[in-house]
């Protein structure tokens, strides 16, 4: 049996970091002349942010865990402006952090020292939608949810969805290679992104934006920027393949009395639901308890259930009756076989949203605690929960440990929350979590990226030769190392 920590009390926010200490690179500091140049590029001083209070949201991340000391944030509107900004930064040797919606969870979107923040928030125009081809071309600063709402009017949808959809940008999604809840069905952005427009460190505009489904002319350069976390260039526009919006959607919330039963339910869902399966999420009892205790609007759809594990399955298809029938038969056989102990099917849109609110409430509930040790791991599904139990055993009562995530994709979200960060707690978790993940043949970053949190951890997943090759790519695209320094690669400064 694993030891279970008590829920840490809602604590004051503690600005602490588990990142490795780094030394400021040999970059220039901002001068009055630089400010004049940027103001002339952007045409209006209000897009050149220098006031300390106004800079705070650019300097601090969503978790309040990482905080930089930038003295300048720039808010361009066009690709040409981004290009001129980068040309100047390159000439002056000024370090830059590209910033989207600033919802990243690894400290990648905020400065470490005094890097210039280039916010993409004003670059929010949709350039075109081709309903027949299912292709949208838009600027990088478009908010994911707005894109999805706009596509809905054309009978299309965004191929990705995540809890931060109301704030995150498509450029940020591409730069982190975000996964989310629809990955199981629609796959990686490496497939959905058809083209990109990117401003390189030198200010050069790389145009590989052609919105073609098929194109085998030479090297597929756009792939390098998907998941590069702003270290190779600033994504300014993207062409995305957008699938048809499903006519029928269902959600079911299930309980299982053990993790092997969760796996059995997944096996059955794939076999019985087939092409209509669009999400398979799991959460342990600790995650569910935390979310329901923290937020009044989060309710356990299986009130009174005390099982250890919960599963949220979504189906998306084109025929309501056919999908409902399939779901019903899957539920009956799963119950009969003992894979699940109980279940509820959403009867309307309100219930559908309430089920998803439970799942999406977990990261928000975790974020109400003073210290959050957050791990986003790819591990073989069979061993996924062992890692949670082993970590829980190690931290004992020092933290409250939860495991949940995108089980369908083998993506575990392991979180330990406590009142405050401490060396003792850190050393109980790290490097254990990374070492175990490596032993299991997994990845220390499934979908959040490496950022500053894990810049020294890439070696747990990638070979030395792969890391050396990545450094070569970095030097080729950004010889001065001005783009998002101290992130992704070890000793990049
Ligand atoms: P930011 O946080 O601003 O930036 C992220 C990284 O991308 C940084 O390194 C930044 O420098 C770089 N960047 C941003 N824009 C650009 C650009 N235009 N060009 C070049 N580089 C750029 N992530 C998932 O994968 N799946 C989830 O299910 C998920 N759920 C989440 C739920 C919540 C509640 C929260 C807070 C976060 C969640 N995330 C999830 C993490 C986060 O939302 C994603 O990483 C998202 O893709 C980041 O987008 P953003 O616009 O906020 O980027
Ligand atoms: C999710 O799937 C996000 O909810 C956040 O990726 C995960 O907070 C986390 O650990
Ligand atoms: Zn996730």
TrEMBL record:
Transmembrane segments: none annotated. This is D-2-hydroxyglutarate dehydrogenase. It comes from the Eukaryota. It is an enzyme of class 1 (oxidoreductase). One of its GO terms (molecular function) is FAD binding. Pfam families: FAD-oxidase_C (PF02913), FAD_binding_4 (PF01565). Residues 66-245 form the FAD-binding PCMH-type domain. Keywords: FAD, Flavoprotein, Oxidoreductase. One of its GO terms (cellular component) is mitochondrion. Its EC number is 1.1.99.39. PROSITE patterns: FAD_PCMH. InterPro entries: FAD-bd_oxidored_4_C, FAD-bd_PCMH, FAD-bd_PCMH-like_sf, FAD-bd_PCMH_sub1, FAD-bd_PCMH_sub2, FAD-linked_Oxase-like_C, FAD-oxidored/transferase_4, Oxid_FAD_bind_N. Its cofactor is FAD. Belongs to the FAD-binding oxidoreductase/transferase type 4 family.
């Amino acid at each position: 049996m694993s030891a279970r920590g008590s829920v840490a009390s809602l604590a004051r926010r503690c600005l602490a970091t588990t990142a490795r200490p780094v030394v400021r690179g040999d970059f220039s500091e901002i001068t009055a002349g630089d400010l004049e140049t940027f103001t002339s590029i952007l045409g209006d001083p209000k897009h050149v942010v220098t006031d300390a209070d106004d800079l705070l949201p650019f300097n601090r991340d969503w978790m309040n865990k990482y905080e930089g000391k930038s003295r300048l944030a720039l808010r361009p509107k066009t690709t040409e402006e981004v290009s001129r900004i980068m040309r100047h930064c390159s000439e002056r040797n000024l370090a830059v952090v590209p910033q989207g919606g600033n919802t990243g969870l690894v400290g990648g979107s905020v400065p470490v020292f005094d890097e210039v923040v280039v916010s993409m928030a004003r670059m929010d125009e949709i350039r075109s939608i081709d309903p027949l081809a299912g292709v949208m071309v838009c600027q990088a600063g478009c908010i994911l949810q707005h894109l999805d709402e706009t596509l809905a009017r054309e009978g299309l949808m965004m191929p990705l969805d995540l809890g931060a959809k109301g704030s995150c940008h498509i450029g940020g999604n591409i730069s982190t290679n975000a996964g989310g809840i629809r990955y199981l069905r629609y796959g990686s952005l490496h497939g959905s992104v058809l083209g990109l427009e990117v401003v390189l460190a030198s200010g050069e505009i790389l145009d590989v934006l052609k919105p073609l489904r098929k194109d085998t002319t030479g090297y597929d350069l756009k792939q390098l920027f998907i998941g590069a976390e702003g270290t190779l260039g600033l994504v300014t526009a993207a062409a995305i393949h957008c699938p048809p919006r499903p006519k029928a959607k269902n959600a079911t919330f299930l309980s299982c009395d053990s993790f092997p039963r969760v796996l059995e339910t997944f096996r059955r869902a794939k076999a019985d639901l087939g092409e209509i399966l669009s999400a398979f999420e799991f959460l342990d009892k600790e995650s569910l308890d935390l979310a329901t205790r923290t937020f009044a609007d989060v309710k356990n759809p299986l009130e009174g259930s005390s099982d250890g594990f919960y599963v949220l399955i979504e189906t998306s298809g084109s025929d309501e009756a056919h999908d409902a029938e399939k779901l019903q038969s899957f539920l009956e056989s799963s119950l009969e076989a003992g894979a699940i102990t109980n279940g509820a099917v959403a009867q309307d849109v309100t219930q559908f949203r309430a089920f998803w609110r439970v799942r999406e409430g977990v990261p928000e509930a975790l974020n109400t605690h003073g210290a959050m040790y957050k791990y986003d791991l790819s591990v073989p599904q069979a061993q996924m929960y062992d890692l949670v139990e082993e970590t829980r055993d190690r931290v004992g009562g020092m933290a409250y440990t939860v495991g949940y995530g995108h089980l369908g994709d083998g993506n575990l979200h392991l979180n330990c929350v406590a009142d405050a960060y401490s060396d003792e707690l850190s050393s109980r978790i790290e490097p254990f979590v990374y070492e175990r993940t490596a032993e299991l043949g997994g990845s220390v970053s499934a979908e959040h990226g490496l950022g500053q949190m894990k810049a020294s951890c890439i070696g747990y997943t990638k070979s030395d030769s792969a890391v050396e090759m990545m450094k070569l790519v970095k030097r080729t695209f950004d010889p001065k190392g001005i783009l998002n320094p101290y992130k992704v690669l070890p000793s990049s400064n």
